[in-house]
Design brief:
The structure is a single chain. The protein is an alpha/beta fold. The chain is 30% helix and 27% strand. Strands 5-6-4-14-15-16-13-17 form an 8-stranded mixed β-sheet. A hairpin with a 6-residue loop joins strand 18 and strand 19 (332-336). The longest helix is centred in the C-terminal third of the chain and has 18 residues, at 341-358. It is globular. The model is unreliable at 378-395 (pLDDT under 50).
Length: 395
């Protein structure tokens, strides 16, 4: 018997395990594959700020950004934390006006940000083929290694006594009277006072297995990783409309490119809507990403690609996270659907740990209750299917 059983070993699951154990809970974590091997492994490592849509979300992102800067010492892990900044390349006057407002908002908060015209953009990134671009919006931004973040959280959790079981997929739930009595996984039966679903894109299917409803959605995203190269980029670079495309309905390429400390380039994303989770690459995605990257960076012609990845990019119908008790259950908690995940997850999971153990609802969790979808599911009937996307295209 354990106090808390967490399902999922990505950013959210490992962070919850760490914060719950630090608060004194007896915790077991079940991961179907390897730690950080799901959506968390298919992550650029950006610690975004400018994409915060609302003032409340910006408050949270800035607080999470500050929290991350202390996490390396706390976890005793080198996260490869650095501050390259981000350039959003702008191609039309509408985008320019939109980002002027975002930049002004950041500057009012004391966050370094500025608008760059075409000439300034060429100075900032000499290798960028910016023909046709009006310029770019620069914003302060951090970067870390997502694999090291997951591994560091898992190691720190283990030091606090968390039992971490990998290669242990959940196969079923024993439920009675709105309470999960046990979780069946890896041929074993696990009992716990509380169960936490922190399995990213897989959370909707797991909730359905338990007899509940949770409208997790996802698109299929693909990226490529290059060989080690000498320093080429001064910033992380993305195109305007990145998040709208990543969670939109169309098959598209929205370019984001960054160079990791080891020298390799991570180039993303080819995106298409998905009805089921598929970890294989498509026949169109990788060539399309490569063509887009070469169009923006002609010097990349001939660079070797060492590996590719594809993964579900999860989101909820309102494009906000869900943290709270799932309606219909006494002891099933959900932590999934994170937007701007890296800067928000440490903050939100620390608050969620207090919520689970003490019933304390932090202001950071306000508005993120899973129950906000209950009425919509009843009205729409079929919305609880694992990935019925509807008409939404904005994160």
């Amino acid at each position: 018997m354990t106090d808390i059983l967490i399902i999922g070993g990505g950013f959210a699951g490992t962070a919850l395990a760490y914060f719950l154990a630090r608060a004194g809970a007896v915790v077991t974590l079940l991961e179907a594959g390897v730690i950080g091997g799901g959506t968390s492994a298919a992550c650029a490592g950006r610690v975004q700020i400018i994409e915060s849509e609302t003032e409340v979300y910006l408050d949270m992102v800035l607080a999470g950004f500050a929290r991350l800067q202390t996490l390396e010492d706390e976890l005793e892990t080198d996260l490869e934390w650095r501050l390259p900044g981000h350039l959003t390349v702008l191609s039309n006057p509408q985008q320019w006006r939109q980002y002027e407002r975002l930049v002004a908002r950041l500057r009012a908060r004391g966050v370094p940000a500025e608008m760059l015209d075409g000439q300034s953009l060429r100075v900032a990134e000499p290798l960028l083929g910016a023909e046709g671009a009006l310029g770019a919006a620069y914003s302060h931004e951090g970067h870390l290694n997502p694999f090291k973040l997951c591994a560091g959280l898992a190691r720190a959790a283990r030091r606090l006594g968390v039992r971490v079981l990998t290669q242990t997929p959940v196969t079923g739930f024993e439920q009675q009277g709105g309470r999960i009595r046990a979780v069946l996984a890896g041929g074993q039966r696990y009992e716990a006072d509380a169960i936490v679903l922190a399995a990213g894109a897989w959370s909707g299917g797991l909730a359905a297995q338990a007899g509940g409803q949770f409208p997790m959605k996802f698109s299929h995203a693909e990226a490529i990783v290059s060989e080690k190269l000498p320093p080429l980029l001064n910033h992380h670079i993305g195109m305007s409309g990145f998040y709208e495309a990543v969670h939109g309905d169309a098959r598209t390429v929205t370019l984001g490119i960054g160079q990791h400390p080891g020298g390799s380039l991570l180039i993303s994303n080819a995106v298409q809507q998905a009805q089921a989770i598929d970890r294989t690459s498509t026949d169109w995605g990788m060539p399309a990403v490569a063509r887009a990257a070469q169009a923006c960076f002609p010097r990349l012609a001939g660079v070797r690609i060492l590996r590719t990845w594809s993964a579900p990019s999860p989101f909820l119908p309102d494009f906000l996270p869900a943290l709270g008790w799932l309606p219909g259950f006494d002891n099933l908690y959900v932590a999934a659907g994170f937007h701007l995940a890296i800067p928000t997850i440490p903050l939100l999971t620390e608050a969620a740990a207090a919520h689970i153990l003490e019933g304390v609802v932090s202001s950071w969790l306000a508005g993120f209750e899973p129950g906000r979808f209950a009425g919509r599911e009843r009205a729409n009937g079929s919305e609880d299917t694992e990935n019925e996307r509807g008409e939404k295209s904005k994160e």
